Amino acid sequence: MLTAIFAIGLYLAVLVLVVGTAFRLVHYVRIPVPLVIPTTPAPITRTGVVARLLREVVFFESLFKGSKWTWLFGWIFHFAMLMVLLEHLRYVSEPVWLWIVAIQWIGLYAGIAMCLGLVGLAVRRVLVDRIRYISAPSDHLMLLLLVGIGASGVGMKVFWHTDIVALKAFVIGLIRFDWQPLPGDPALLVHLSLVIVLMLIFPFSKLLHAPAVFFSPTRNMVDTPREHRHVSGWEETRTSHRKVASHEPKPRG
Amino acid sequence: MPVITEHLQVPRVQPDAMAETKPFVAKAEFQEALGFPGKLVDNWQSVALDKMSELLGKYRALPVFLDACVKCGACTDKCHYYLGTGDPKNMPVARQDLMRNVYRRYFTVAGRYFPKLVGAQDLTESVLEDWYRYYHQCSECRRCSVYCPFGIDTAEITMAGREILASVGLGQKYANEIIGKVHKIGNNLGLPEPALADTLTGLEEEVEEDIGVKVRFPLDEAGADVLLVTPSADFFAEPHVDGLIGYAKVFHQAGIRWTLSSYASEAANFGIFIGNYDQMQKVAERIRQAALDLGVRRIVIGECGHAWRVAYSYWNTLIGPFDFLDTDYPAPQHVCEMTYDLIQRGALTLDPSANDNKIVTFHDSCNVSRGSRMGSIPGGQFTLPREIIQAVCNHFVDMAPETTHEQTFCCGGGGGLLTDDLLELRVKGALPRVTALKQVVDNHGVTHMAAICAICKSQFSKVLPIYGFDMDMIVSVHQLVGDALVFDSAH
């Protein structure tokens, strides 16, 4: 029964995460970007734009310029979470890839660092009057949810060890559609439940910021409007009830 | 009245500090002239939501920006209007939230079913009033977008907000009246051809009296090489006109045949301010028409911030391609690009000691800095004007780095807010810039601040005296150039 609930829950969560996010991104792609609006100075080559996006995603370049504390906590949280996710690949790879074996030692520290980063962000959200002002309940809860995931994970490593061999069998079973029993340890169930919630809300929440950064015209456009004529792209997509602006030059005498 | 402190302070949140401030609403005749309803329509809520839905489908930036914000707060202390007023709705993210909360309520699953949880909000009358107030307390300067980890540009949200407001009948008087004048007469000031011709003749006489050389100010001369399109403030406002004299002297000494156009006697394009693509295109179209009618080979843009953004970033899309112009020159070209090239080629005789009575700093204008480029490499919009100034002045000092280049502060009057009904906001919004200015005045004896934007020049002429500075501190870059140009018998 427990196994079935979590198996179905995880299938559903992955489905919502993947399909929901894909749906959203396809929606973005279908909307035109009528004008050239990179925040300048901006790269003047495609390669330059790729580098700009990479710096944004890997180092949080703009955030670094904006707020050192938020950058510090935010970057620690995200980087640690990446490490934790990589470490977790041992549950889905069989046999476990060597490089994943090699980074297993990082998991515990990364889990702790992730929680510390999140706590830093949460404290700022409560203490800085400007950030408190802009926070909705969901902004606080999102941090709580992530702390819950991190803390329950770290807890399993340190205090409430679970049967990870059985857990792995469960995960592999999910992948092969050959369900195996899920260990019933409370910490694990809490951990998995919170992860399911996170995946379910991803496409409907600000968690979309992760893929959205690649679609941000101020960051992904090449600054060559004089060299290359950008067209609005409205003709194909504009709905018919409004006059379509003409972008092609009219013949003149 | 804000007080200049040694270092800029981030104010505590003071809710509703600027809730009383808003510009006049456009009268029916000016609204209708632009195709907007004359007054607030009865079914404004559904009209506004329809408009919002339309814009969400026309501008990718809008849904991406509304979805992506994580409320990290990096932008909260970056807006000059927040820094000057402490009103939390002037924090970029809070300004966006005025629209984001409505977007969530009507266009997202989370906001439809759990509005309280995600801060979603119905589009009520008080929300609409907040839109009108706070979308007219943003100068669309893009400073916040520099620091946003997702590049969210509040200017895009403000433009959408203003477009929705105009579509329900709440256009802004200042911007819409000006756009009307451009359509009717050809420039923001409503200066007709005879008056313009008169002004230019007067300038010719003035310059000849001054330097003994007949520098021409040609108008509507077919067959000229260059069409100069400049903000109409350059024709008579101080210190703008000295910039125009500077351009004319450069053209004269370089031997370039140039002309102004009475049909397209305005570089400014307030269509960008109200976020309306069609208006922006219609205003820009006059310039293409004038260039074709006069048969020019180049278009050069005078010192004007948003005009340069529209010309540089949008013209090719709006009114391009420019295949009828000389491909040896960028189309369009900024007057600073032209002057810089002439200096590089040694085509100008300059005596920087003519400006030895000045210690000059440079105010980067927001639209030039964060919405355009000059020259062939990124950041040319910062280096070219500075190199020009340093070629014509012996004493140049930059302001603090966190207030220059792409981190520059708006003058406080950009984005269609340069109107006296917003004077309090303009004064408070100038605080970050004047704080940085005071530092270089106190530490380096700076006497003048040069700018390349008509709005910046007008704004500073008005607010600098309020902060205890000399009104004449603000000068055009091309005034400095013009004063340093040496004319002798050889020319």
Strand content of chain B: under 5%
Counted up, domains of chain A total 1
Instruction: Indicate the low-confidence ranges of chain A by residue numbers.
Output: 236-253
Structural class of chain A: mainly alpha
Q: Work out the helix count of chain B.
A: 22
The major pleated sheet of chain B works out as: 4 strands, parallel
Please identify which CATH superfamily of chain A we are dealing with. Transmembrane di-heme cytochromes, Chain C
Helix content of chain A: 55-70%
The strand line-up of the biggest sheet of chain B is 2-1-3-4
Shape of chain A: globular
Note the beta-strand portion of chain A: under 5%
Can you count the helices of chain A? Answer: 13
Please provide a written account of the structure.
The complex is a heterodimer of chains A (253) and B (491). With 253 residues, chain A is mainly α. Chain A has 13 helices and no strands. Chain A has a single domain, classed as Fumarate Reductase Cytochrome B subunit (Up-down Bundle), CATH 1.20.950. Chain A is globular and about 60 Å long. Helices cover 49% and strands 4% of the residues of chain B. By secondary structure, chain B is mostly helical. Chain B starts with 27 loop residues before the first helix and ends in a 7-residue tail after the last helix. Chain B is globular and about 75 Å long. Chain B folds into two domains: 28-171, Fumarate Reductase Iron-sulfur Protein, Chain B, domain 2 (Orthogonal Bundle); 179-484, no CATH class. Chain B contains 22 helices and seven strands. At the A-B interface, helix 1, helix 3, helix 4, helix 7 and helix 8 of A face helix 2, helix 3, helix 5, helix 7 and helix 9 of B.
Question: What keywords describe this structure?
Answer:
heterodimer; A: 253 residues; mainly alpha; Fumarate Reductase Cytochrome B subunit; 13 helices; 65% helix; globular; disordered C terminus; B: 491 residues; Fumarate Reductase Iron-sulfur Protein, Chain B, domain 2; 4-stranded parallel β-sheet; 3-stranded parallel β-sheet; 22 helices; 49% helix
